[in-house]
Write a structure and sequence with these properties.
The chain contains 2 helices and 5 strands. It has about 90 residues and is α+β, with helices and mostly antiparallel strands. The protein has a 3-stranded antiparallel sheet with strand order 1-4-5, covered by helices on one side. The protein has a two-stranded antiparallel sheet with strand order 2-3.
Amino acid sequence: MKKIQKIVDKLNEKYTRVNLLFGYVGNVERWGDDRTWYVFAEFLNFNDKKKIKIGGYSTSKMKDFSQYVERNLEKIILWHMYQSDTLMKAMSR
């Protein structure tokens, strides 16, 4: 979990138009852990905000999620930023 948080913090510093948060949806109960882990991303465009969830891994698959984040999170962010920039250019014409 610390590895994912480190990556999220680094990318938050690098890409100021994106607000990234690492967290989960769910609970830990006496019968078990039903948390699902995500990186939540909010892209800032004009006065609008686009929000996405990246991940959806259970706690038991945290190692897989960590590898996924390490390999793909920056690419996903860049793709969404490109999409936002393309839309902004089209709207300004």
